[in-house]
């Protein structure tokens, strides 16, 4: 009897110790989860609730059901913002990833000289603040007197109003954005290339493959996880385009560079319709999730 | 050895509590003020005097970009914490902040001062029989011109009417010189440029009750005039607001005029210092020989106090000190050439002081004093600016005539703002 009690006590003590040991990691993780709850999950839930209200910031919010979502559906400016964002996203993601991959392949090759200098040169724009970049590009794009138009004039080419022509303005944003992001993505691709075992490529070469065949049939297929990552990340960034377009054109001229996030910002901070802005943010989140899943399915399936 | 008795502990605690009470009684009330560049300079210039007059209040002044400031102020109002006690808000955006219900009612403090502000300025803080905030500055428009170029081309000044203005512009255009600048493509920043013309002609977009003025012939005509300056007469240099190409044209002497408020002098001084003494100011032209001598504005600023401030009295004292005080209001003219909203300050000799850049001329005496600022009703201006800016872009982009553009502006304002 005494031995049984002693065994039970010993077992209970052992369980407590085990429980304590199991809980300790969670204790260390608690600060992160508490912060996540307060500054991420809390606002995410709160903004979802606000998206069904007419909240303007201070006075009591009034529940208005799906009215904000209906308004989004009926507003032609939202659809224009969506079209602009989709066009921008498609061009930006394609050009950026093509150029970044080409740059990474060039840096990874043996024929290129001054590789470190080139790496630094392309990565430098990533470190430059947007304000400085915007001032620089405003001077580059300036109509008639900007560096770009002076160069085009010297070459005898047409000189568009880069920021003032509705047909051209979105391209100015794309140029600035690619200039800023190219180095960052090239570094990611370069890291991916470095991770490919050199003996695989060497074996292909020994089998008589030409350099372009090695790249096309060996390097690129092995790089697919990195390509997928870069495409998904750049798409998310593209859908969230705001800073460059806002600083250079404020969404104009004639809404030609209006993006979903500028539309959201205007609703929230210029019109002070925070309930409506919350609804727009949920639509944007939904679009980002759809785009990421679609890309994962398309590229991921092929990879498998 | 020191013996700690219960009595000693009690005495120590009492002494510390008393010291704490005494300290808190002497502690200053700290208030924060958010503004930008020239307004920060003006506030810093009078801060010491305010703190001398109010030794129990300490003012902390923060310099923020004006648009960041508006955003942060809104977030702080919504959160109820983290905001300033007083903030400077763009006048044309102020109605949206009133609508949030987060601003302090200043009716009691401001009612006795109603006669000290021009009606056009007072109307921006008045809402439903109450007042919110304190007017700070007005930005009435003048016309700055290159006296040397005008003289060389035989143009007599002042240009009394817009008809005279266009005639002079045509003379200069023959030499490849523009008489003024128009913000095109417009976007939101360019709308303020058009408002100068609309306001000076009393072409209100909204009536006093906030309804859109329908079939607004005066506004339509004004837009046609604005368009013709650029496209028909080809006498206005067109570029985005503050674009590098505009300043380059000023430096090259291809622009001989600038129809804007008085802050332009600082901008011209900075961009074209070698043109010092060549520029002059004249009053905003009239809309006909017998038309009233009026002008428009590029929107002024208003001092806002959030309801959530924990320092209501101190915040009010500071806001009144910088918004309703002759000496302080004069400083905002000195620091940024922003015309005081508080009318007693307009009598200050400081405003009559000559500018070296303008060949010793006083902007106020020469260009602003001879004109009265018309009223202009701003309602839901955040949305209205986007609608008008887009239509201006379509008009200057050749997609619409000015008349079509104005009709579409009216339609959209009515349908989207439900006014």
From TrEMBL, chain A:
Gene3D superfamilies: MetI-like. The keyword Transmembrane helix applies. It comes from the Bacteria. Keywords: Cell membrane, Membrane, Transmembrane, Transmembrane helix, Transport. It holds the Pfam family BPD_transp_1. CDD domains: TM_PBP2 (cd06261). It is found in: Cell membrane. Residues 82-295 form the ABC transmembrane type-1 domain. It is a multi-pass membrane protein. InterPro entries: ABC_transporter_permease, MetI-like, MetI-like_sf. PROSITE patterns: ABC_TM1. The chain crosses the membrane at residues 26-50, 86-108, 120-148, 168-193, 214-239, 274-294. PANTHER family: ABC TRANSPORTER PERMEASE PROTEIN, INNER MEMBRANE ABC TRANSPORTER PERMEASE PROTEIN YCJO. Belongs to the binding-protein-dependent transport system permease family. This is Sugar ABC transporter permease. It comes from Microvirga puerhi.
From TrEMBL, chain B:
Pfam families: SBP_bac_8. It is found in: Periplasm. The keyword Phosphoprotein does not apply. Residues 1-24 form the signal peptide. InterPro entries: Bact_solute-bd_prot1 (IPR050490), SBP (IPR006059). Keywords: Periplasm, Signal. Its main location: periplasm. Belongs to the bacterial solute-binding protein 1 family. This is ABC transporter substrate-binding protein. It comes from Microvirga puerhi.
């Amino acid at each position: 009897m005494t031995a049984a009690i002693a065994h039970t006590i010993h077992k209970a003590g052992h369980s407590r110790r085990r429980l304590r040991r199991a809980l300790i990691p969670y204790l260390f993780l608690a600060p992160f989860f508490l912060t996540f709850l307060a500054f991420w999950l809390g606002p995410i839930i709160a903004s979802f609730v606000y998206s069904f209200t007419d909240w303007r910031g201070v006075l009591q919010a009034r529940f208005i059901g799906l009215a904000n979502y209906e308004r989004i559906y009926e507003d032609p400016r939202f659809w224009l913002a969506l079209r602009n964002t989709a066009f921008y996203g498609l061009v930006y993601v394609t050009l950026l990833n093509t150029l970044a991959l080409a740059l990474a392949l060039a840096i990874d090759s043996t024929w290129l000289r001054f590789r470190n200098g080139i790496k630094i040169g392309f990565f430098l724009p990533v470190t430059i603040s947007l304000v400085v970049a915007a001032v620089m590009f405003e001077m580059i794009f300036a109509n008639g007197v900007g560096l770009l138009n002076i160069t085009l004039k010297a070459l005898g080419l047409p000189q568009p109003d880069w920021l003032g022509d509705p047909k051209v303005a979105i391209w100015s944003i794309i140029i600035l954005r690619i200039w800023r992001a190219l180095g960052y993505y090239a570094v990611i691709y370069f890291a991916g290339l470095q991770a490919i075992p050199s003996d695989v490529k060497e074996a292909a070469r020994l089998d008589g493959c030409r350099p372009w065949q090695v790249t096309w049939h060996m390097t690129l297929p092995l790089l697919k996880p990195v390509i997928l990552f870069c495409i998904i990340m750049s798409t998310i960034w593209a859908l969230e385009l705001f800073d460059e377009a806002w600083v250079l054109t404020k969404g104009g001229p004639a809404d030609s560079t209006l993006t979903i996030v500028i539309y959201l910002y205007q609703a929230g901070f210029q019109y002070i319709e925070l309930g409506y802005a919350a609804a727009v943010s949920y639509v944007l989140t939904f679009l980002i999730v759809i785009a990421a899943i679609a890309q994962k399915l398309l590229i991921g399936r092929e990879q498998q | 050895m020191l013996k700690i008795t219960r009595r000693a502990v009690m005495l120590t605690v009492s002494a510390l509590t008393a010291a704490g009470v005494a300290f808190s009684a002497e502690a200053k009330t700290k208030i924060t003020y958010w503004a930008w560049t020239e307004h920060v300079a003006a506030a810093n210039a009078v801060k010491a005097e305010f703190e001398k007059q109010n030794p129990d209040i300490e003012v902390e002044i923060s310099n923020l970009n004006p648009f960041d400031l508006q955003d942060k102020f809104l977030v702080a109002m919504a959160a109820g914490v983290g905001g300033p006690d007083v903030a400077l808000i763009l006048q044309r955006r102020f109605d949206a902040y009133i609508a949030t219900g987060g601003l302090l009612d200043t009716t009691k403090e401001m009612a006795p001062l109603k006669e000290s502000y021009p009606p056009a300025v007072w109307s921006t803080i008045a809402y439903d029989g109450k007042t919110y905030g304190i007017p700070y500055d007005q930005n009435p428009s003048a016309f700055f011109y290159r006296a040397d170029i005008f003289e060389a081309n035989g143009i007599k000044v002042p240009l009394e009417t817009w008809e005279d203005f266009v005639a002079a512009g045509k003379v200069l255009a023959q030499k490849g010189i523009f008489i003024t600048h128009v913000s095109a493509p417009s976007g939101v920043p360019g709308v303020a440029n058009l408002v100068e013309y609309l306001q000076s002609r009393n072409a209100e977009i909204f009536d006093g009750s906030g309804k859109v003025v329908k079939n607004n012939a005066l506004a339509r005509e004004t837009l046609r005039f604005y368009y013709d300056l650029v496209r028909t007469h080809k006498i206005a240099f067109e570029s985005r607001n503050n674009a590098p190409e505009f300043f380059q044209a000023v430096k090259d002497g291809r622009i001989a005029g600038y129809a804007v408020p008085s802050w332009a002098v600082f901008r011209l001084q900075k961009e074209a210092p070698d043109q010092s003494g060549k520029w002059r100011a004249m009053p905003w032209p009239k809309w006909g020989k017998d038309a009233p001598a009026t002008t428009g504005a590029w929107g002024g600023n208003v001092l806002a106090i959030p309801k959530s401030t924990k320092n209501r009295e101190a915040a009010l004292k500071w806001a009144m000190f910088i918004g309703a005080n002759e000496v302080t209001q004069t400083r905002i003219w000195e620091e940024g050439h922003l015309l005081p909203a508080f009318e007693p300050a307009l009598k200050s000799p400081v405003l009559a002081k000559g500018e070296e850049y303008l060949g010793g001329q006083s902007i106020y005496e020469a260009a602003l004093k001879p004109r009265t600022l018309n009223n202009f009703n701003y309602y839901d201006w955040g949305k209205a600016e986007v609608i008008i800016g887009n239509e201006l872009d379509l008009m200057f982009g050749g997609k619409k005539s000015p008349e079509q553009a104005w009709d579409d502006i009216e339609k959209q304002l009515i349908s989207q703002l439900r006014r």
